[in-house]
Write a structure and sequence with these properties.
about 80% helix, two-stranded antiparallel sheet
Length: about 120
């Protein structure tokens, strides 16, 4: 963990709050997107039954949508943890950077989510 001695400034505290709000927006977007994915799958199943059509609904969308919502919850918890850790560091006159491992893990998880969404979109005909 890289720690540099600094002096507490209002700009730093406000930047930490803006970053926390960005985490909250991102978490809400993942939760909402997961809900839309899951509900769209249920809508297509109901519509197919109503129209007496065959459907190959595998339930992947419901599971993926639920996973997206769970990932949104995880992002909100990471954001709260980062906000608290950064605030604690700022009040102690230290800068605490996010670990490289955490940034890689989050980036890989988002890349996997993007790949699954792209695959699902390409599989619809």
């Amino acid at each position: 963990m890289d720690e540099l001695k600094t002096q507490l400034r209002a700009n730093d505290v406000l930047a930490n709050e803006r970053t926390f709000l960005a985490y909250v927006r991102t978490a809400l977007a993942f939760i909402a997107f997961g809900f839309v994915i899951a509900r769209f799958s249920l809508f297509t199943k109901e519509f197919a039954q109503l129209m007496h059509l065959d459907t190959n609904a595998s339930g992947v969308s419901v599971a993926f949508g639920t996973g997206m919502a769970a990932f949104g919850i995880l992002i909100s918890l990471v954001g709260a943890w980062r906000y608290a850790a950064t605030h604690r560091g700022l009040t102690q006159g230290r800068v605490i950077a996010m670990s490289s491992l955490a940034s890689y893990v989050i980036s890989i998880a988002i890349a996997i989510i993007g790949a699954v969404v792209a695959f699902e979109l390409l599989s619809y005909k």
